[in-house]
Amino acid sequence: MTVYFQETDSRTVIPLPNNVAPYISFRLPNETTGATTDLCSFPLAEVSNMIEPTRQVICNIENPNVAQEAKKLLVVIQDVLTSFRQVGIDMSHLPPIRAFKLDDGAVLIEWIFSDYRVGFSVEPNPEDSGWYLVTKENLGNINASGYTSHVDLKKQMLWLFAYVFSNS
Amino acid sequence: MSSQTPNEQENEYPANCIRGISDSCLIGADGTVGSGLFQFDETHLRPDGWIEESINWEDDEHAVQFTLDQTKDGELQFRVGVAKIPRIRIDDYNQLPAVNGVLSYERKPEECNRYHGNILLRGNLEKPTKRRVVGGLANYVSVIIKRH
Fold first, then answer.
1. Residue A15 within any structural domain of the chain
2. Which chain B residues contact residue A57 at CB under 8 A?
3. CA B33, CA B27: separation in Å to the nearest integer?
4. Which of A102, A154, B87, B105 has its CA 20 to 30 A from that of B136?
5. Mean pLDDT of B28-44
6. Are A136 and B139 in contact (CB < 8 Å)?
7. B41/A143 Cβ within 8 A
8. A79 to chain B, minimum CA–CA distance in Å?
9. 3-class DSSP state of B70
10. Percent of chain B with pLDDT over 70
């Protein structure tokens, strides 16, 4: 049995390591006052592990506005991955999603494969934030990008991640 | 902005350029490299409209070790290692319709570094375009040499 905790601030749900879980009561008091319970999107350990490297980077972002936007993005990523997992998509062979802080204050969240990468940039000016998909020639030299502001981010992410699951 | 690209004399360039890696987070367990390898910080925008990103050219068999040995403020500049990017991949990528010549490169030898040059990116790109092009460039890293 996997024991989870939820970070109140970002709402990301994280599995406790097995060596820690026995020391945690299963009857934790519900101290979260701002979150809603959505069992349908409760993430599996596989999903949580996949986004853990990104979560760790986001926790150390100095700019509070960029950190907030990155956390929102991570919640959408978690939801979308969970929905794919719930319809039976196997993710066990996929690399984790990673994040990188840039010198200009932006944060990149990337899912990187040998022949392509899907990425999201969280910019200091949220209007500049965007997404991209770039592939090598063996996958058709796809070079697609756009802004994430004023779009349905979840739909956009479903399309991008569907590409990942089709090509990995 | 100049319509001329700095890399007109193609034959003067070797097969690979070398980019130093100073952050281990950039390298994945599977050998992939994060786009953060190339920053193209807009504070490095030049009057000719290009943003420059430092590289070394692999002109001879000593260039990789020279790059690994480079220091900054008395410490090794590239603590993690170096990445090689084949120049022909940059050229091919740059010719794609969706990239359309926004990349270039040049030699810019320095007094203490004869290998030095720059990869150049047009400075007038929208942010998502810039991130995409840089991501495409990172896709073409062919070799990572980690420091022992």
1. no
2. 25
3. 5
4. A154
5. 93
6. yes
7. no
8. 23
9. coil
10. 93
ipTM over 0.95: no
B123: pLDDT strictly greater than 70: yes
Looking at beta carbons, which residues of chain A come within 8 Å of B36? 100-102, 108
Domain count, chain A: 1
Cα–Cα distance, A14 to A23 (Å, whole number): 16
> What are the sequence ranges of the domains in chain B?
13-146
Q: Residue A45 in contact with residue A2, Cβ under 8 Å?
A: yes
Can you tell me the distance from the alpha carbon of A16 to that of A43, in angstroms, rounded to the nearest whole number? Answer: 13
Nearest to A143 among B30, B132, B138 (CB): B132
Residue A77 has which token pair? 């990523």
CA distance B68 to A60: 29
Q: Residue B135 and residue A119: Cβ atoms within 8 Å? A: yes
Q: Which domain holds residue A87?
A: 41-166
> CB-based contact (8 Å) between A4 and chain B?
no
